[in-house]
């Protein structure tokens, strides 16, 4: 029997590896460097998005791949245990029990300590620094010091003599003395004093000055003050000597090669050898924070470039692939290509490729973005001072001086740009790059934004709470057949209902239009002629646990983003509650993601785009982007490209993805005897099978037949799948 199965397996279609449905990945710009460590020749850089690991090759770890939070602020490699302690601005702490990023990504290597994050206290909870003292790890926070032992917080206490909340900005150990940098000066305590929990055990030095950073080098303690003064002390830290002044100071770093560095806003200054001073990397920016010795050179955590390293030669930016910015304002997708617009930058990612980027001052004030459906290499960005065309890395400004807040393509491939507060509110760009303005009296001087194309008509936001319609007609070059109107949001079942602001629009696969407002969601059904009167929307009723009663979809949420997937399901982003996935008609909640239950870095979602080829849903938040692989893609015109993955299904594999299907195809799976084990309708062009039969039990080893048919029953296909238990 085994031989027979192997022979059948060789005849099965070969499926290329694919990202697992339900998996997450990050799309962060790892640029905001905060700290840097070197362990065993490997550099570990702390950025707000996650950790960069560099040993000639670059790897990354984030909330999507092993960490518990976003907004990293500090880290410590603890040589005694081999653990990495990671601190966050929220007060959260992770203990990574391996310095190998591959093991961390596998899971079970991360111990989360969230007691301090949940603790009620005045002042900031953010972790500023870790320090090993005997058998303890001390953590300096925005209000107190924490003592950690055996992955648990054993104590927390203030160093202030009045026992007040006081930010501890750094910690250092010289001999038996612990030094704490605070806005009130330097506090010192004997580590052997069993009463150091009491604030009276801490003695203040450098009173009257704010100390921002500490370092121990050559048997001496160095304290950097906020005014730039560098102080030096030895012994019991009673007497300090002034060692120089450094304008716009940021941090001190004592490197393993015996050097002491002061990072300022404009330079890296070597305290002992001024000839080593650095004022530029020769890269696009220079904003150093912390320094560590690396081979025969140094590595730097930079506030704009992330990790910068030199092994004795030129500096290089050791950057994981990602977009140029974490401040995405708008997303667009076409044919598997995703673009992310930020003020001053545009990043693009092909369906299965890496991010590439273009930075330009022409992109300042970016508002919206669109990909040319006829020429995917061409992207247009709406800005507060015109439209920017990008192609082949070159940027060109059009419509100089117009405040353009919306760009979209009509069915003929003509670009429509909507200018706010303008006597020429609509601009049409033909394929030969000829621009013509439309002087619409209905849209003139209105604040126009957020266009969505439904049929042949654009729907958009006019002012804060009005909608506009615009149709370029059958001939975009002829303005005589254009139509436009502006109207308030009204619903059919409530004459008193009104919205304060509209934040998002999207057209669904049936020609309907969905609005995200400050009072939840409003939906408009497809209309043959939306200009034949004021369109009336509807609020989606959601059944509640109380019989006979219903609520309205997200009625208490501010809905900021809407995207429609290949199964016509609605992905809804909110200002404060994360993301909701609703059924095609909106009545059933299928999933919900937020910063507490998922890798979302923030509950404030700015935009959503869906890769129609892979099913990846990309969420742009105010802290960066992450992607989630859903089980829906755009339908294909035939079954010629059907993929089944994994195939064969081996032990431990629990989900099979069937992709590249015709839209809403019928999917039935049987064993070779014809017994039905699974049936479904595809979500657009994809579906998944959990390798279980209709009774919820994993199927037996054997060959299974996947029967596919389109909606009309005109096309069909049978694919073989092998399951090995």
What can be said about this structure in brief?
The protein has 725 residues and is an all-beta fold. The longest helix has 10 residues, at 2-11.
Key phrases:
725 residues; mainly beta; Methylamine Dehydrogenase, Chain H; Immunoglobulin-like; 3 domains; four-stranded antiparallel sheet
Question: SSE layout and pairings?
Answer:
Elements: H1 2-11, E1 24-27, E2 33-39, E3 42-47, E4 50-54, E5 58-62, E6 72-78, E7 83-88, E8 93-96, H2 101-105, E9 110-113, H3 115-118, E10 127-133, E11 136-141, E12 145-149, E13 152-157, E14 170-174, E15 177-182, E16 185-190, E17 203-205, E18 211-217, E19 220-225, E20 229-233, E21 240-245, E22 249-254, E23 260-264, E24 268-270, E25 288-294, E26 297-302, E27 306-309, E28 316-317, E29 328-334, E30 337-342, E31 345-349, E32 355-359, E33 366-371, E34 378-383, E35 386-391, E36 394-398, E37 403-409, E38 415-420, E39 426-429, E40 435-438, E41 448-454, E42 457-462, E43 466-471, E44 483-488, E45 502-507, E46 513-517, E47 520-524, E48 541-543, E49 550-552, E50 559-564, E51 570-574, E52 579-582, E53 589-593, E54 605-610, E55 616-621, E56 624-629, E57 643-645, E58 656-659, E59 666-671, E60 676-681, E61 687-689, E62 702-709, E63 716-723
Antiparallel strand pairs: 1-56, 2-3, 3-4, 4-5, 6-7, 7-8, 8-9, 10-11, 11-12, 12-13, 14-15, 15-16, 16-17, 18-19, 19-20, 20-21, 22-23, 23-24, 25-26, 26-27, 27-28, 29-30, 30-31, 31-32, 33-34, 34-35, 35-36, 37-38, 38-39, 39-40, 41-42, 42-43, 43-44, 45-46, 46-47, 48-49, 50-51, 51-52, 52-53, 54-55, ...
């Amino acid at each position: 029997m085994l031989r027979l199965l192997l022979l059948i397996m060789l005849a099965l279609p070969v499926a290329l590896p694919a990202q697992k449905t339900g998996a997450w990945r990050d799309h962060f710009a790892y640029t905001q460097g905060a700290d840097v460590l070197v362990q065993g020749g490997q550099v570990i850089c702390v950025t707000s998005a996650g950790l960069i690991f560099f040993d000639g090759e670059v790897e990354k770890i984030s909330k999507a791949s092993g960490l518990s939070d976003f907004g990293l602020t500090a880290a410590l490699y603890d040589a005694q245990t081999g653990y990495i302690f990671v601190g966050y601005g929220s007060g959260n702490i992770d203990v990574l029990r391996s310095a190998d990023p591959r093991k961390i990504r596998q899971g079970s290597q991360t111990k989360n300590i969230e007691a301090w994050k949940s603790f009620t206290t005045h002042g900031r909870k953010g972790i500023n620094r870790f320090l090993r003292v005997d058998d303890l790890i001390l953590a300096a926070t925005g209000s107190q010091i924490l003592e950690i032992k055996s992955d648990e917080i054993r104590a927390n206490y203030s160093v202030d003599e009045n026992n007040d909340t006081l930010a501890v900005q750094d910690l250092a150990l010289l001999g038996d003395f612990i030094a704490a940098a605070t806005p009130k000066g330097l506090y010192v305590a004997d580590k052997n004093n069993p009463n150091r929990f009491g604030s009276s055990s801490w003695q203040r030095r450098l009173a009257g000055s704010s100390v921002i950073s500490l370092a121990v080098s050559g048997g001496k303690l160095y304290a950097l003050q906020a005014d730039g003064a560098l102080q030096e002390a030895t012994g019991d830290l009673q007497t300090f000597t002034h060692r120089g002044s450094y304008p716009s100071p940021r941090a001190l770093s004592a490197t393993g090669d015996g050097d002491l560095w002061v990072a300022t806003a404009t330079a890296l200054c070597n305290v002992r050898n001024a000839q080593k001073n650095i004022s530029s990397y020769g890269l696009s920016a220079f904003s150093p924070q912390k320094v560590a010795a690396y081979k025969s050179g140094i590595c730097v955590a930079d506030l704009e470039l992330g990790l910068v390293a030199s092994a004795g030669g030129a500096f290089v930016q050791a950057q994981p692939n990602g977009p140029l910015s974490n401040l995405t304002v708008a997303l667009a997708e076409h044919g598997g290509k995703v673009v992310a617009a930020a003020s001053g930058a545009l990043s693009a990612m092909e369906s299965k490729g890496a991010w590439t980027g273009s930075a330009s001052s022409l992109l300042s004030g970016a508002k919206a973005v669109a990909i040319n459906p006829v020429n995917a290499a061409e992207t247009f960005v709406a800005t507060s001072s015109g439209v920017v065309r990008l192609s082949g890395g070159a940027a060109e400004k059009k419509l100089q001086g117009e405040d353009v807040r919306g760009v979209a393509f009509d069915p003929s491939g003509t670009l429509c740009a909507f200018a706010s507060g303008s006597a020429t509110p609509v601009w049409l760009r033909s394929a030969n790059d000829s621009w013509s303005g439309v002087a619409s009296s209905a849209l003139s001087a209105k604040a126009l934004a957020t266009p969505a194309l439904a049929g042949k008509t654009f729907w958009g936001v006019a002012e804060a709470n009005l909608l506009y319609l615009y149709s370029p007609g059958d001939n975009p070059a002829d303005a005589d057949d254009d139509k436009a109107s502006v109207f308030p949001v009204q619903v059919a079942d409530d004459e008193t209902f009104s919205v304060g602001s509209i934040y998002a629009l999207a057209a669904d696969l049936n020609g309907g239009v969905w609005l995200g407002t400050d009072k939840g969601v409003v939906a408009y059904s497809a209309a043959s002629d939306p200009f034949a009167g004021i369109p009336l929307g509807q609020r989606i009723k959601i059944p509640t646990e109380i019989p006979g009663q219903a609520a309205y979809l997200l009625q208490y949420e501010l809905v900021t983003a809407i995207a429609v997937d290949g199964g016509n399901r609605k992905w809804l982003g909110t200002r404060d509650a994360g993301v909701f996935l609703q059924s095609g008609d909106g009545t059933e909640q299928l999933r919900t993601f937020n910063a507490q239950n998922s890798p979302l870095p923030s509950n404030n979602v700015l935009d959503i785009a869906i890769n129609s080829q892979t099913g990846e849903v990309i969420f742009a938040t105010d802290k960066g982007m992450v992607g989630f692989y859903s089980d829906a893609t755009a339908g294909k015109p035939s079954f010629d490209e059907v993929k089944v993955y994994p195939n064969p299904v081996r032990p431990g594999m629990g989900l099979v993805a069937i992709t590249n299907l015709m839209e809403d195809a019928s999917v039935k799976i049987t064993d070779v005897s014809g017994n039905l084990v699974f049936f479904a309708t595809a979500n657009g062009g994809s579906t998944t099978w959990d390798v279980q039969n209709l009774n919820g039990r994993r199927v037996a080893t054997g060959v299974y037949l996947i029967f596919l048919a389109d909606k009309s029953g005109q096309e069909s296909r049978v694919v073989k799948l092998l399951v090995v238990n």
